[in-house]
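Worked example 4.2. Below are the chains of a multi-component assembly; read each line carefully before continuing.
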Amino acid sequence: MPAETAQNLEALASQAQTLMSVFTKAGYDAVAPSIIQPADVFLDVIGESLRARTYVFTDQDGAELCLRPDITVPTCRLHLERYADFPATPARYCYSGPAFRYQPQGATASHPREFRQAGIERFGDPSREAAEAETVAVVVKAIEKVGLKEWTVRLGDLGLFSSVLDAAGVSPNWKKRLDDAFLKPLSFREALKGFASGARVASPGIPEELLASLQRDDWEKSEAAVAVYLEENAIELLGTRTLSDITEHLIVIAEDRQEKPLDARAIELIARYAEVSGPATTAGDRIASLLKGAANGAGVALETYDRRLALLANAGVDLERVTFSAEFGRTLAYYTGLVFEVKSAGLDAKSPIANGGRYDGLMRAAGANTEVPAVGAAIHSERLLAATLKGAQ
Amino acid sequence: MSKLTLAIPSKGRLMEQTTDMFARAGLVVRKVGHVRGYRGEIDGLPGVDVAYVSSGEIAAALKAGSVHLGITGEDLIRESISDAATRIRFLQKLGFGFADVIVAVPTCWVDVATVQDLEEIALPFRHLHGRWPRVATKYGNLTRRFFASKGFGDYRIIESAGATEGAPAAGTAELIVDITTTGETLRANGLKILDDGVILKSQANLCASNAAAWTPELEKICDELTSKLAASVPAKAAAR
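Applying the procedure described above to all two chains together yields the following structure tokens:
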């Protein structure tokens, strides 16, 4: 819903001003990254699903450009331009401006192709939970300031799943596969069932005799075996992936097959954890009782969870309005730890007013020479305005 | 009375096969006016206006509703109309223009047989080569929908206008999504189809546009045309 009437424009502009004043008072520098962005960075970082919703075009010189589909990546790029050599330099930014997304089902009021995002990003802050709690608190403060009274926050935590796996004592090999499987809600249960029944089964199309002949300890012999297999079957080695790339993946598959089946107790714990959902305080108790019997004890997982909630409460966020869902965040792009969304009763469930979280991998993907801790959030301006107007009626 | 507009391919093998099939159904399609013109009519079906349209544009004409009926491949409809189920009715499979839209990777990837395997190599590939695997295709929408249904998102689409099969050997993409009939071209280019890599088994279809202006009279002519064509399609081909 672009501001096509003067009245609407005025309401959005005044709302943006209020949001930005809350952000800048909280210590965030106002920035205005370019609307037109090089397509390459975006397409590499965001994955093909958001790419499909990005307006990409070629300019007169043949350069591939895009209309920014969000403002987080442009802010990362802006930070990298300022601190190319030391990207982990602490910095806080805020912004308000348009972003653009193709809507495959047609543009609607809650899913417009052109919308205004107001947000904050915080880079290089090593105190993780404190930075996360403050991000949530600032967003809540901002939306309350513009007059929205009815709101709830839902939390998720992709890092917590990893900690649960550590607590359950699963091997690094299983951990990697479980982490991958967890990100796919549709097939997770199925995958877990498969893991319970035993070690990995290779795709039938992968030659068995070749897999059986490979060993990591004898890398050269293994690579030679792959080369011989290709030659004997008159298969030409072509394309970007090298003989070594192919051998490495075959060895991983062979190793996965040797792995002991996943322990039944670990599976039980993982399945139960994935179902945790409810008020944030009781969810914490639930996770604690699940982890009580875990092989390696509760470890850092729960500490992090509890500390974050305490910090949230300290920052003035009413925990009564905060829920936690273990499943939440699995399908969102680029997040690596905490994820959260703010909803209002007046809007449909698929239209959060704001969302954000931790995305430690993004800066490196955008070209930084090191990993940079990053946490941020964006408010969907048109939805916030709609919810506020509804609440005022 | 307004006429029923039928779009048929304006040149190439698809046009010949369309004309042959109409002939088998006892319908003679002939051009009106100049031999190089783009309008035609059907003997015995005076209510039908034939428009010769380039096969790539028939889907767009059906989507917009500027023609009532069109003969084109299901692959082109599904690629260019994201909500094909509501905009288009598939009236009759025609038993020619067979083409499978498939995912193919280099045959030397002996470690990759399924989309799941492909997904597994994406991250190591990115670490080694600095980017996600690239998929060369002119079927961007079909590719995205197919991979999304499999939960695979770590790739980049490279638009390919022609000679897609050559992209992996040329180093401009790692894998392809393309159409194949016999698989011969794939083999010649050192590529293999993934075991679960058939996205769509396509053939030429008689399609109706829901966006066009329909009247009971036009519906009747459409039914007549459809039943005549249906009778001339080999049952085996239509059942594919």
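Take a moment to check your reading of the output against the notes. The CA atoms of residues 49 and 333 of chain A lie 9 Å apart. Chain A touches chain B at residues 43-44, 47-49, 51-52, 104-105, 180, 184, 186-187, 203-207, 210, 226, 229-230, 235-241, 245-246, 248-250, 252-253 (CB under 8 Å).
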